[in-house]
Amino acid sequence: MPVDMRGAMPTHWLRMGQGARKAVLIHCSLGHAGAWGGFAAELGDMLDMLAYDMPGHGKSADWNPETDLQTQAMLQAIGMIGAEGPVDLIGHSFGGTVALRVADARPDLVRSLVMIEPVFFAAALQDNPELQRQNTQDLAPFYAALQAGDHETATRIFSDFCGDGRPWGAIPEGQRAAMVARIHLVAASDPQIYQDQAGLLAPGRLARITAPCLLMEGAQTLHYNPRINDALERRLANTQRAIVEQAGHMSPITHPAQVAAHVRAFLGQVPAAVRA
User: Fold this and answer.
1) In this structure, are strands 9-16 and 47-52 parallel, antiparallel, or unpaired?
2) What stretch of H or E contains 18?
3) Which domains can be identified in the chain, with CATH numbers?
4) Is 25:36 a contact under the CB 8 Å cutoff?
5) Cis status of the peptide bond prior to 65, with omega within 30 of 0
6) Residue 207 backbone class (left: φ over 0; alpha: ψ -120 to 50; beta: rest)
7) Cα separations (Å) of 261 from 86, 120, 199, 247, 265?
8) What does the pLDDT look like over 90-121, one tens digit per residue?
9) Which of 5, 200, 216, 252 maximizes the CB count within 10 A of its CB?
10) Is residue 76 a contact partner of residue 52, using CB atoms and an 8 Å limit?
């Protein structure tokens, strides 16, 4: 599939499905557009899906530090939607936070919003300040390895923390190498997901998003993720929740059929003509 300019960035993207509804899919950190393949196969009759590689991921151009990673990915998404909007916008993990940014900046482009395990830690920490110390302790080895320049150890720690459950040695060598090469992008997202650099937690701001929203989490995910969804549910105007049984953080990849079933049921309640 092509590489063209989306949001002023050379962007690689895929088109999947032949449904009547337009959708844009945003992958997780260290992922790529192709990771949505199993999920898209389940919804191909319902959705016409565009999935793109975020900056520095897959075959898209490298991240330009002059603009923060989340904002660049948001501009890509807006470029992907273009004249096809409004669309059903679906994001996983860091991609979920990008989808939230799009809904905040361009509500006219978003018919519905699906966030699967969005890693907007700032929301959970604002509502549960007691989590800050534990979160700092949990991630201290990751940041220590990054600071020491040991990117392989940092990537292994990150994968153990929020990966798909496979031991590091069970991940194919080529995939491990690609993850190690991109691990700096995880830390690059910290100002947005931990410090809320975009200001989404300002009083009343997220309440302005009126598009129907589905918040999803795995039943076996880290305890932070339900807290994040709790915090978002308090702030968004029109939300539903879904739990993917027996799944962890990487449910769109490990349990695509179950995730797709929840999304199908949710979208069945959202008329295709709805404009936020």
Assistant:
1) antiparallel
2) none
3) 3-127+194-267 (3.40.50.1820), 131-188 (no CATH)
4) yes
5) no
6) alpha
7) 22, 24, 33, 14, 6
8) 999 999 999 999 999 999 999 999 999 999 99
9) 252
10) yes
Alpha-carbon distance of 108 to 24, in angstroms, equals 14
Beta bridge partners of 218: 244
pLDDT tens profile 180-193: 999 999 999 999 99
Say whether pTM exceeds 0.90: yes
Element containing residue 180 per DSSP (H, E): helix 173-182
CB neighbours of 268 closer than 8 A, spacing ≥ 6? Answer: none
CA atoms lying within 13 Å on the CB side of residue 81:
24
Place of tokens 């200001």: 199
Q: How many angstroms separate the CA atoms of 49 and 133, rounded?
A: 40
Strand order in the sheet with 47-52: 3-6, 9-16, 47-52, 21-26, 87-92, 110-116, 213-218, 239-244
Contact 251, 258 (CB under 8 A): yes
**Distance between CA atoms of 239 and 210, rounded to whole angstroms?**
9
Confidence of residue 1 (pLDDT cuts 50, 70, 90): low
If we measure between CA atoms, which residue out of 206, 194, 227 comes closest to residue 127? 227
